[in-house]
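Deliverable D4.2, example record:
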Amino acid sequence: QVQLVESGGGLVQAGGSLRLSCAASGSIFAIGAMGWYRQAPGKQRELVAAVTSGGTTNYADSVKGRFTISRDNPKNTVYLQMNSLKPEDTAVYYCNAWITYVDGSRPRVREYWGQGTQVTVSA
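Output generated by the structure prediction step:
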C-alpha cells in the first residue's frame, strides 16, 4: 500500500511564504516524476510545478520566480517552497507522484495523489 501524505498548508497574508511537504510511503520500488497541482473553487485542477527523478523542474507561468519545487530522493519527499504569495494562489494543493511498486513478482507503475492541503492567502 502506497500513500502520499502532505503537510504545510495554512493561512498566510499576501507577500508571505509557505512550504509544503509530501512524503511517499509504503511498498515503493522507485519514484519517477513528482509534482504539485492546485484546484481553486470553481476551477479545474492545474499543474503548479513538477520535478523528475533526475531533478529537472517545470513550473506554471503564474508561479515562476516565486515557487521552488525540490525533492529528497532518499526520503521519498517532495517540497514546494512558495514565496511572495498572492490571493490568487489560494487553492487546495495536491501532491502527485508516479510510483513503481512490486505486485507479486511484477513491477507496476501507478499515479498517486495526496489528500490535498488548503492554502489560503489573504489580501
